[in-house]
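Annotated sample (chain length 227).
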Amino acid sequence: MKILMVLTSHDRMGDTGNATGFWLEEFVAPYYVFKDAGAELTLASPKGGQPPIDPTSTQPDALTEETRRFEADSEAKAQLANTRKLAEMRADDYDAVFYPGGHGPLWDLTQDRHSQQLIHDFLVARKPVAAVCHAPAVLVHAQGRDGQSVVKGHRVTGFSNSEEDAVGLTDVVPLLVEDALKEKGGHYERADADFDAFQLRDGLLITGQNPASSAPTAKLLLDALTG
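Output written by the structure step:
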């Protein structure tokens, strides 16, 4: 299995002066799900090189068994420091694509034409596309064969409005994931409680709601590839 993982290159939280990027757990948990299953992984980002890690995701209360494993994994850290440029990626070269979240993707990947084309190409080739937490926002402007958003008519999830409100960023982010998915015709679903794991698969689209959903979303992608 060859899986492409696409990370953000955006490191500023709007005009707040605070840093952002990708959420560490949302990258490393899927990374090890895929790695342990024997997948060959390629990492890419719009700018290439080291993508920015949201500093909040490295705080003690955000650390997990997988983040600690990553911290001791020099090979994985070297791979992350040398992501390839997104514009050079081709769906033909991979079996699936996975987008980790964090707030960064709301600013760059959601609008990135290379990402939109890549998602289109994967789906047209009948290859699964997965995204977790804030990253399902990258789907809203990607179009299917019919010229409509790829989320239209599909069951999808992503970081909820109430979760964004809970972290105090509703008025900072350029869009709310839940609203964006609904506005493009997605059938949005979520866990009963904020920050509980929730993930779903509808055809070739696989989405997860929040950081707790990262590994389960990756496992759904593996199921799509092997089932």
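Annotation: The mean pLDDT is 97.
Annotation: The beta strands are 2-6, 40-45, 84-85, 96-99, 129-132, 155-156, 187-188, 199-202, 205-208.
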